[in-house]
Amino acid sequence: MEEKKHLGYTPEYIDRLLPNQIFVFGSNVLGYHTGGASGTARKRFGAVWGQAEGIQGQSYAIPVDFGKGNVTPDIQPYVDRFIVYAKAHPENHFLVTRVGCGIAGFTDKEMAEHFRDALTMNNISLPRSFVNALQNDAEQDFDLERFVKAQEGHCSYNEALDEIKSGRKYGHWIWYVFPQIKGLGHSYYSEYYGISGEDEARAYLNHHILGTRLREITKALLDLEGHSAYSILGCPDDIKVRSCMTLFDLVSPNDIFADVLNKYYDGIRCQKTTMRIGIRQAKPKLKKLTITKHYHIMLGDKEIKMEPIVKAVYLLFLRHPEGIVFKSLPDYREEITSIYSDLKPHGMNDRVIKSIEDVTNPLLNSINEKCARIRSLFANEFDESLAKNYYVTGERGEAKRITLSRDMVTWEK
After folding, report:
1. Is the pTM for the entire model greater than 0.90?
2. Partners of 288 in the beta sheet?
């Protein structure tokens, strides 16, 4: 941001402030400032961990996220208290970010209405999207040029297209080539390149450059044969692409995006995206997991196919509901070797032995790669809220486990 007093809209990106400027952001009710604008407030502008509301350093928190599944209390009193504070401190200039439009899941129109009294205040700047909504601006400025500039810079669109055509993604371009609905991620890029809603998605699809490129690279993905979404994109980018395809399938049904969902994701949409758009699907339920006598992993009547070493890791954790601390993996080397021998009873070669040594060595990344692969497979079957029951989870340094109730697991052998 330029070193001068800001007039007009809140800038899209703020990395520093003048002494009299205050960064206004949306907080959760616990004051856990982790991602998006709240993370920026904590890292750069003095936001205090555990303080959910009010002035803190060069920032001001407004509670907007009250927990998944909970009825959201009235946000207006929190905004009103902020406006009262701003009126009492005319020496400061308050830069309001897109409060509530990230992880909390509100639209710009919904949140802007809460800030109507701030529209004419000289020491409060609002996001352009809030002002547009309050002034009933028919031609909303979605700043689609941010995508064009990104696609023509480092890690360009042409590089992304070449990588997809080769069958393997390597670059860091996922956010601005396959954009998702805003609020699914915590990083700056997921927020900055997040699509605000159906109107912006349609504008993106109708853009003379962006829409053409999205369909072109989507077709390149569709044209690949003998690949899975995971093998092409890795995790979690395979999940992000499903979210992208879901978003554009919702605004352009029976288009190429539905074909990708059908080919790579068995037609299963990203439930979080559909909910943010306002379309409610039938709530999915947990399915029973069956390990057959031939060690096929069946989710309902569908087999979850895994490479032998990945399957051996999965069965190891499935056999230990108490969990396993990664640093203790060497203690399980003999057990995972026995599991692998059951999967492949025709002998062990040096390559397999090396793979088992690697995956049980906590100093290597092999175990994390295998767990990421497992996560990706189940994320293709369920929304994250259900998928997390089936893959290996746990806090850093603590026991990692598969949390699915063992009443839901049947071992035929």
Report:
1. no
2. none
